[in-house]
Amino acid sequence: MGCTFCHLIRDDAARWVARGPVASAFAPLNPLAPGHTLVIPTAHWADIFDVPPEDLAHTMALVQQVAAAMRTALKAKGVNVLSASGPGSEQSVPHLHFHVVPRWPDDAFSTWPTQRSRHQIADDPVTQLADAMTATHAR
User: Fold this and answer.
1) Domain ranges of the chain
2) Strands (E), 72-134
3) With 70 as the cut, is the pLDDT of residue 1 above it?
4) Where does the HIT domain lie (predicted)?
5) Whole-prediction pTM value?
6) Residue 94 has what DSSP assignment?
């Protein structure tokens, strides 16, 4: 079956905003707003846990460039950058991607969650994260 986004790249079958050797950007089939753009690493990386830091840096640089273009070309007042990675995150395509959604004060929708998670963590999650970060950097 293969990856939908890899097919788009291989077959040149998207409405491209930008194409590059490391990161590319294209219009989704069902945009949330005029100019909504998906930014992806050109190579197949499943999610944020899989992508090498260099490819992620190039991809995020393109996210920033697309956001700036939205502000100038579309007169957007801001953007939302949305991504989901891994099981349980609602990731719809297993190829790392960032939705860059232009926003205006009168656009009448929200991309921010309206409810809090019911999941509970034993102990203090901030301490657990800080400890994990320290252990990761000590390697």
Assistant:
1) 4-113
2) 78-82, 98-103
3) no
4) 4-110
5) 0.91
6) S
